[in-house]
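Structure (tokenized):
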């Protein structure tokens, strides 16, 4: 297989009351992956599809410094959104790593959750290598009435993917009794030591904590439903669940503390993110109920007012024209008088008109926020269709923000699709042709009719 680099770009938009997704580019990268080069690739791709940069509401990427700088340079910092899935991955990896203790002399880290995971990993590897142990594991399950096709196997994790470690631990705990009996019946230096009862209890508490975050990782990975508005609420709910856990063993307590510290460090200022805060407020399921800091809420309400005013720049033209006519009449009748304050009067009227426009926008926002939130399982898009007559300006903003993808998962799924197209027997496909094939494969069945 040829070693080539590609970047995948997907788009998300409203089509009626449905959120649509599409692939607009799987571009081969033939230069160094600098931010300038990646920015040019972004701009060229959207230009080829006739998408104006001003129409791009947000760009969701991973946390790579080069890709982030490319987006900020071409689209502006306020339109960049970091992938929630990558952020969660960093939170857990750092949280687990920080449970280790560092030796003051050697600077070597040891103990903590990684040490427990290593013990489990050694046992799993033993069963994976030993045919006899694996056969015995299966025969014990059969003797307990489990059918051949439903016999479970131990899961070996990929150390760079924390959720695979969670699945490994979860399976290990559920089969710990059988594993213990098999290991105790065997002799030899190659047989690993079974975990102590204390270690098993610690693992169970660790599994409960990681299980909460594993549930979180599945929440934002959808492409067909409103997701950007869920990020702030789901992060707050996750932190609350972790806080409410009452671990007994020190290793689990330490992990709980480190996870909460990482959440505070990496997600503590989400309320100040304009994309996420606007999306959350414009979702009738959440509105402002998850805004903890008054300053953040006040700032985003002012932003909404400014966005509404920008949508309706000529809202008060008639009133302004009437005022100008009155001014002309007054100046005609008093043409012999020189008004030193004429400039001030003009600026005063502009300020009053702006204040009046802002008050209309604020009235609409406050009326919307005073209305009760809808149920969590209800569709916010359908709700906006029902209330758009009462809140026309907010409805327009909702159509701009609620389809934003919360993660870069849709573009990363392209790697799997691309792998199905560029196989060992088709490894000379040109990048331009590969992009077209991936695009055609991504089209929904309705577009082929």
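Design, position by position:
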């Amino acid at each position: 297989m040829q070693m080539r680099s590609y970047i995948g770009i997907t788009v998300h938009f409203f089509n009626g009351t449905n959120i649509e997704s599409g692939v607009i580019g799987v571009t081969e990268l033939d230069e160094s992956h600098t931010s300038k080069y990646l920015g040019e690739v972004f701009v060229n791709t959207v230009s080829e599809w006739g998408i104006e940069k001003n129409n791009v509401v947000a760009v969701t990427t991973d946390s790579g410094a080069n890709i982030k700088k490319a987006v900020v340079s071409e689209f502006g910092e306020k339109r960049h959104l970091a992938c929630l899935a990558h952020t969660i991955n960093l939170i857990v990896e750092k949280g687990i790593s920080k449970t280790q203790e560092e030796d003051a002399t050697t600077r070597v880290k040891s103990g903590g959750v990684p040490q427990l995971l290593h013990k489990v990993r050694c046992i799993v590897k033993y069963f994976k290598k030993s045919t006899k142990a694996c056969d015995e594991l299966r025969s014990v399950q059969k003797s307990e009435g489990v059918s051949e096709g439903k016999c479970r196997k131990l899961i070996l994790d990929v150390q760079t993917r924390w959720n695979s470690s969670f699945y490994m631990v979860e399976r290990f705990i559920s089969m710990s009794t059988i594993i213990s009996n098999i290991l105790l019946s065997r002799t030899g230096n190659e047989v690993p030591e079974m975990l102590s009862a204390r270690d098993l209890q610690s693992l169970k508490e660790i599994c409960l904590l990681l299980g909460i975050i594993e549930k979180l990782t599945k929440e934002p990975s959808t492409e067909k439903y409103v997701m950007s508005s869920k990020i702030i609420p789901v992060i707050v709910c996750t932190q609350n669940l972790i806080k409410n856990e009452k671990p007994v063993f020190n290793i689990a307590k330490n992990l709980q503390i480190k996870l909460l510290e990482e959440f505070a460090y990496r997600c503590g200022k989400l309320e100040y993110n304009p994309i996420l805060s606007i999306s959350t407020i414009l979702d009738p399921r959440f509105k402002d109920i998850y805004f903890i800091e008054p300053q953040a809420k006040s700032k985003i309400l002012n932003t909404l007012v400014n966005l509404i005013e920008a949508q309706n720049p000529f809202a008060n033209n008639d009133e302004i024209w009437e005022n100008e006519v009155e001014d002309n009449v007054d100046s005609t009748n008093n043409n012999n008088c020189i008004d030193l304050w004429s400039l001030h009067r003009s600026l005063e009227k502009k300020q009053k008109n702006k204040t009046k426009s802002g008050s209309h926008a604020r009235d609409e926002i406050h009326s919307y926020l005073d209305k009760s939130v809808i149920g969590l399982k209800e569709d916010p898009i359908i709700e906006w269709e029902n209330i758009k007559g009462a809140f026309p300006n907010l409805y327009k903003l909702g159509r701009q923000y609620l389809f934003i993808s919360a993660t870069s998962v849709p573009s990363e799924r392209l790697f799997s699709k691309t792998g199905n197209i560029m196989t060992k027997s088709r490894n000379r496909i040109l990048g331009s042709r590969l992009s077209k094939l991936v695009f055609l494969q991504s089209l929904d069945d309705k577009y082929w009719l």
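Reviewer-requested clarification: Residues 314-326 have pLDDT under 50 and may be disordered. The chain has 18 helices and six strands.
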